[in-house]
């Protein structure tokens, strides 16, 4: 018997006494597995002996019903159906409270409208009065006008408040989901349960880190954090959390081998090519495009804090916690601690005179394992916040972290080119510079000066570089032609380096990069 016939049979034949309707409070969320762009919800539906139809109401209709998974214990599930309704839309506690406040403000606005309309009607009536005391009519009209003015002022305040509440409600965005009802047609000879799971959007987690450098102890403290946000229309109360680096996909494409076809075509007769005349319109379009590019923009319940343990799976990493947490459906972002570890660091000051005259403090620590997924890292140096950067944990070598500018390292670049007789012809250019690095600290410090050697992308352009000192190394992180001079600068000591780069090229054409 197929599912459709089972459903029709059940609807026609099951007595109402064997139908059992459950709300979400009877089947609370037990486990949530968060992914970078979604979450898997797991809950259990209790089934009593003798039941034939179990209904679960109040779900948010924001998940693909085809991804619903269920597993029964001690009972048989014959069929499953669902219905979606726009009535009694579910939402989280924060949205429900905002809805109530919005309804209350709308009611007060209606009351002020009634006051205004009643006072205006009274004044209209008083305008048609031909008998009675004039002072009495004037006093009544005065009172009515005062009521109108006060009601309009109060209405304006209420409308501003209404706009603010609706803006907050829209920012959460979990109050527009339809309500979904699941029906399970079962054969329950004894008490049992149905475990269901489904994947929902509007929930995410991302790793964030805090790196704290102590320059005295030469230690870096790395704290792992998880940023969690969810706007699913249902609060996650007292649930077990798991954070996974995997990304489930709705559709998986099967890649299959394809034949490789090649071909050859006879050359076509050569047609004369005429040089096109200058095109002012094209130049205008280029100017408009450049201008357009210049105008284009640059791109209530507090949670508990569980303790997570990292687990390496075959294709991902999962952080699991046995401690339960509560995450409301709201616009807030919650940061949960994962772990904190201390690492010894090799400190040095980096100087790249070709790029900047500001020296930066660099800390080098050993390569981290794959339990550290890529994310945003916030940098602190001796308790002071330096900034943040995106960190990708995919380097094959040691991890390098920059902890801001070292103001006590003075860097100067002096142009040694002869201004009176510059060596720059139509086929040759020579650059001469001197780099000066002085340590203004009261203690010695390790300094590394970097200078990239120019590399030609065209055989007709040749380069030659000479240095007053032999570099300590000529390769950096597997990249050749990046020279380094490493030294230990004593207090007030100055390091000087003369560099010369010579470029030769044909007199016709143009060059770039220098």
UniProtKB/TrEMBL annotation:
Domain DUF4139: start-end pairs: 194-506
Domain DUF4140: 32-126
Chain segments annotated as coiled-coil in the UniProt record: 148-175
Keyword Flavoprotein applies: no
Superkingdom, taxonomy of origin: Bacteria
InterPro entries: CHP02231, DUF4139, DUF4140
Keywords from the UniProt entry: Coiled coil
Short name of one Pfam family: DUF4139
Name this polypeptide is given: Mucoidy inhibitor MuiA family protein
Organism the protein comes from: Acinetobacter rongchengensis
